[in-house]
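User: Hi! I'm a student and our assignment asks us to look at how structure tokens line up with a sequence. Could you show me two examples?

Assistant: Happy to help. In each example below, the sequence comes first and the structure tokens follow. Example one:
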Amino acid sequence: MAKYSLASGLFFLDAESTARHDVAAALESIAAAGFSETELMAEGDEWQAPGSHDAGPCREALERFNIFPHTIHTPMSGVNLASSIEEIRRDSVARIGDAMRYLGELGGRAAIVHPTGATTAEEAPYALENVGAAAERIHRSVSELVDVAAETGVRIALENLPNTSIPCRPLKSMEELRAFIAGFPPEHVGLCLDTGHACISGFDPAQQARVASERLCALHIQDVDGKDDCHWVPGHGVIDWSALGEALTDIGFDGAWTIEALAGRTESTAEQVAAECTALSKEWEAGGMSNPG
């Protein structure tokens, strides 16, 4: 049975996706919305450099509000596991590893990892001529993170990312990702399907779930208009949720059902978006995943 989680980014990020709220405040808002699970977010000034991160305050807040941290979104700003600049690649591995250890201390299960990031001005952009080399660097990075997964018990969940703003981006589809992780231990490396990313990249989220199959261990549930990464509550966009629900049932998905809705592209407050997410999760729990309305 699905266990819905509300991503803390709804209360942790502002309209420009800048980290602004403290963790305790975000968790309090998630609990107030009626959710008992969340996806933590390793963003903000304290996550800009590798180092020791004290999980104590977060653990206290999780216990106070009775919330389980099923997943954590590892750092994104300045992170690129495919970087051709070795210092950036190593730093990215270290920062993601820190987030995995942090979640491990809290008893969480999976770390959402972006396999690629934007290239810097000093690097050649992704192109047909260098995409293979970029994939090799990602493989080296994930291989290093597998050691952290074994150490912490936190599974790596590589997320499908959109190619709308980064042409020739490697590993954008579940076909590519599934082939890429074939040699990694399933208990340490799985996949996260972002429904909105799949849609705006020209893929059917339900079909992508079937491709990921038993390696799918996390979901980012968000709706889009078919062009932009909107992060709307399902029902405001074009995704066929009934088809996705059928696919998830067929593959026996039992990972994290994280609603990753944001308020930035709406006229609603974060609290109003959270209330929509609460109503949606109850509707889906009662009647199965379906098209809202």
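Example two works the same way, sequence first and then tokens:
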Amino acid sequence: MTGLVLFKYYPLLNGLISSFFVDSFSTQMKVFVGFKNYADTLSNPIFLNSLCVTLLFNVIINPLQIVLAMALATFLLKEIRGKKIFRTIQIVPISVSFPIACILWSIILNPEQGLVNSILAVFGVPNQPFLTDRSQALWSIIGIATWKGIGYWALFLIAGLEEISPSLYEAGWIDGAGGAKAFFYITLPQMKRPLLFVVVADTVSNFLIFAPQYLITKGGPDKSTDFLMYEIFKNAYQYSNTGSASAMMVILVIIVLAIIGLESKLLRDDQ
């Protein structure tokens, strides 16, 4: 219980309290300013840009990861030749830490000598800037995060799929519900609980994503990958503005909780 208070509730409470103060460098003390940090944050164009970038990233990547993870889980449960090889390929992204994955992908997507551009050159496609171009940087990070995440989320979905009784599919087949109908009328309804867990966990993970911005793009180019977590980091550790960073974190937590509440309502298991 003590550990739970120290490592979970105390940081949350401390962050909330800090959002109402600013550091006074003249007196070396914190000064209470009420909701000023929130007002300044919500009127700051840099914060608003990072909020839009973060929301856009999540609107794209969350459904993308869930759909691909579901497809992968369904595929890996089929009796196919080379199943062990595919399972091994699935585990590779999971076994690589996110920082190392970012470094590897920054090399693979290098605009000059990266592997991807070398392959594209074979087909006559000119070098692509990927992580150094405003129009491609966000999509590149989406690709990296998707590669890292779908295998992991597929593990939970596989566990859920294995719990579905084969008799349900047999009854559905007798009633003419095969293929796509079986998936939408049998699989998805039975997967509400595993899907809810994966959707919520994936949402939290993607809102808190930090490694690609910090290690690869530094929020650029032209702030196209300046996510909220990176702005919070900069305010807290580069600008020593803990009050503003705490206010941003509280706003981020409120947004995430609101989205999780909506997802829980939509995927609630009424059985």
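Here is something you could point out in your write-up. The beta strands are 21-24, 29-32.
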